[in-house]
Design brief:
Number of helices: 9
Low-confidence stretches: 1-10
Protein name: Segregation and condensation protein A
Organism: marine sediment metagenome
Helix content: 55-70%
InterPro entries: ScpA (IPR003768), ScpA-like_C (IPR023093)
Number of domains: 2
Largest sheet: 3 strands, antiparallel
Shape: elongated
Strand order of the largest sheet: 1-3-2
Strand content: under 5%
Mean pLDDT: 75
Order of helices and strands: HHHHHHHEHHEE
Radius of gyration: 25 Å
Distance between the termini: 30 Å
Number of strands: 3
Length: 235
């Protein structure tokens, strides 16, 4: 899959995610969002290669972390999420659905705007000042209105990320290969006594190994254990 990238005008994470979903004519739900996770991560790699601004990468990484969590939840049913994490995943669906509607409305307005002939009219009553006094407005009303505006602005301020645990994906891939060298193992055993972050990174490592055709996986029944085995070397 190829990606178009304009250095001066990066696509936003929701725009890129919607593009990936629509390219496969999928509905917006968690199962289909999981299906485009790899494509979204590949796009982030292209952003890093062209030295995209940190704030752009940060926006993409926030969405990427939610996609990885969605995919992990679908493939590892035993993985329990916090209430706020579940709400965050549901919110991503809502945001993407709303963005799709807004994008469609924008395109419709643009088509109508450029299709309509230009019109001009005389300026009406420019010499007369018109005043409108809302009834029963007090200083308290203004204070409450400003407070609501400030709350909305705070939602869009950059998120400060601190105390991040860094997990090396390459090391996790090597660890994974060593653990399954002797015999196949199930994913439940591999993820035992590991933190949630380590479990998700382990799952990412398996995806990379599958892509590189170094391992094979098997699940004999729905929600059953996933068996991971190392592929024999090609003779």
């Amino acid at each position: 899959m190829t990606y178009t990238l304009a250095i001066e005008h990066f696509k936003g994470p929701l725009e890129k995610l919607l593009e990936l979903v629509e390219a496969q004519t999928l509905n917006i739900n968690q199962i289909n969002l999981a299906a485009v996770t790899s494509g979204f991560l590949d796009y982030i790699t292209t952003l890093e290669e062209v030295d995209a601004p940190n704030e752009v990468l940060a926006d993409f990484l926030v969405i990427a972390s939610k996609l990885i969590l969605i995919k992990s939840k679908l493939l590892i049913p035993s993985l329990e999420l916090e209430v706020d994490e579940e709400e965050s995943l549901e919110q991503l669906e809502i945001q993407l659905t709303l963005y799709k509607k807004i994008k469609g409305a924008k395109e419709h307005i643009q088509e109508g705007w450029f299709a309509m002939p230009a019109m001009r009219s005389r300026e009406l009553m420019m010499s007369k000042e018109i005043y409108f006094y809302p009834p029963q407005i007090t200083t308290e009303h203004f204070l409450k209105a400003f407070a609501r505006v400030e709350m909305e602005i705070n939602k869009f301020r950059p998120v400060e990320i601190s105390n991040i645990k860094v997990i090396n994906l390459k090391e996790k891939i090597e660890e994974m290969l060593m653990r399954i060298t002797e015999q196949p193992m199930n994913l439940r055993t591999l993820s035992q006594q590991q933190s949630k972050e380590d479990t998700i990174t382990l799952f990412l490592a398996i995806l990379h190994l599958i892509r590189d055709e170094l391992v094979w996986v098997e699940q004999t029944e729905q929600f059953g254990d996933i068996i991971v085995a190392k592929k024999p070397p090609v003779q």
